[in-house]
Amino acid sequence: MCEMGGTLNNINAVGIQISKQVPGIKASQNALNQAGIQGFWIYRHDPEGFIVDKACANLVGLDENKTFYTIDDLFPLHHPEFWADFMRCIKSREKGDLILLDATPKEGPNKDLPLSAIGSVIVRNDKDIGLYACGYLTRNSFSGDLFSHNIGSSGTWDWDGVTGAVRFSASYVSMLGYKDSADIATTVEQWAEEIVHPEDRASTAYEQFQILASPDKGDYFECCIRLKRKDGQYLWTLGRGLVTARDQDGRAIRLVGTNTDLSLVQHNFDDVREKLFTDTLTGLYNREYLQAHINEFEKDGRKPLSVIFADITGLKAINDNLGHSSGDILLKSASYALLTAVQKEHEVIRLSGDKFLILLPRCSDVQCSMIVRSLQVILQQRLTRDPHSIPLLIGFGQATVDEVENDSLSAAIKRADERMQKVKDENYEANYQILKQWLENNLGKEVEFSDKRRVTLD
To answer: Which residue in 1, 126, 404, 446 is a FRET match for 287, CA 20 to 30 A apart?
Structure first.
């Protein structure tokens, strides 16, 4: 059940806040099918397009056996209104991160089949443009025969807009962990106070106000809302509502609808989010993680905030002479060293092939200098102690936010990068000789790099 009120005059007291994500549990494919979930999709901004599973491809009538589809591939299959609404969700936070759209195909074998696209933008850049989104394409089973709907993970309700009374189906009651409808609310005021999450109760979806107040915006709406179970846990649900009667002034006097448990689908959202934020080789956070969380690191509670930019010397040379599997070993060794050598609270991010960033909240510039020195000593000891391992040669640069006026984390990272490059330049010849000697000792032959410019080793 979404936003409703005992009368239209007190409707502002019972709101629904569209959420950015919904927590969930793992479910079997059978359970997903029973919940009416058909196909899974992932949107990516660069290159722009969709990754879809076979079920999703079948629903929209895709014939080709491809794993990635461009917007041009898919645009003819849906109405222009769908794409306009979808891209509005991607390019702006105006409507939050939730995606709830009518996705009825206009072409193909399932033409005019009522479908819904349910999903969420899960990574945005600093301009609020969605980089990744994911969700489900599901058949929209909403119908007038609401109380015949008896799926255990879904329930129905009937609201009297004049009296404020609300009636719930047995499946709705069961979904919330109760045995009898007498155990839960009988009026919309009780429902709002006892069942709806306070955050969802505290705000209102403007579009739904318009629907209840006037037929100008249609009679149907969808929303996400948290409902409190008997055990005290909150359940994320997808709510659908339909105005079935209005008074002479056009105000809703009867509303019926369904709520469907969304916890069955969230494990896929969580899994995709984890994969998007994790570097598959090293297990470290990646650049997308930094972009999505950079504003959080700049909060005053984390200052002083210092950063260390780290760059491995010789990764390309190792790849060229020993193969990429050896290069992978070098990257993993660097990741382990950066994770374990720093004793202070920190997060390590792999920005690109051989570049890493260490974020150090509540760390002054003096403390950061000591950490860099400790890392240099540890790497030098590693060279001496373990001469048979691939030389782990890393250049470091550091910076602290607010060491200059009008500073930012992005600017500090740039300074740390520039300082790291200066350090690498100063140590280039010495590191080059260490790497060349190690390769010749292990290969048993003289090594001549095809290009002795510094880019060859970087």
So the answer is: 404
